[in-house]
């Protein structure tokens, strides 16, 4: 019988309705693999940051049964350096070993509970200075969409909650199911956790030429030894202009973006095919299997063989 993971979302006063609904919308669309429950610290309604309150079906007791606990964003004015007693009591109910996830300012709650000490984490870039002043013992990276630090995962603002839930789904059940859920929810299936939170020019100037068509062109040719000159030539731009515009639109250099896309394609092939590591390396544009191993380890910390074993075990 297939194990159904219980995910409990803890709604605190000042919760953002959008972020509160993300776990249910994403993980709840995963063909019954997750049961998503929402609770409050006392079972009563909570004030949202919008013009309405939210009533839930559960009190804090369900936290004892959670495999994963999600702390969604709360309005910055609700953030306190020390946890209110009722919040601390609720968090104390979480069993050891449960996975903890925060969205945006939810990281402040985890940090106030002492759960992020010595760990790498992220939160919304606008609150990075406040977070560092309050919790200097946390290794904060305010430039990324999310951080996976094993049993504790933290994400940046708003839509990065979608990214981290898809990451959890991909990690637990592989990319095919994650991509299927993303299609159902009409969201991008993959944004790397290391992608920049804030991109200076996410929409090109109306008089400028976008690099989007070149990115589509490159994705269809990942197996080729693409260079910056190839990309700039396709976009009909100088090397300097293309590199600057690409960085402004994507938040990554062309070279880093290519590596990211190749690693993503390699992960899919490791999960869904019986090709050897050297064959996959050739399919996605890495010169050798050794190069693939190095880039995959840098991205997710495991070897191709270990990644494939984990995926097949999960399946």
TrEMBL record:
Species, as recorded: Streptomyces fagopyri
For this UniProt record, give its keywords in alphabetical order, as a comma-separated list. Transcription, Transcription regulation
User: MF terms per GO, please?
Assistant: DNA-binding transcription factor activity; sequence-specific DNA binding
All residue ranges annotated as the HTH araC/xylS-type domain in the record: 212-310
Membrane-crossing segments per the record:
none
Q: Which SUPFAM superfamilies match?
A: Class I glutamine amidotransferase-like, Homeodomain-like
Query: Which Pfam families does its entry note?
Result: DJ-1_PfpI, HTH_18
Which protein are we looking at? Helix-turn-helix domain-containing protein
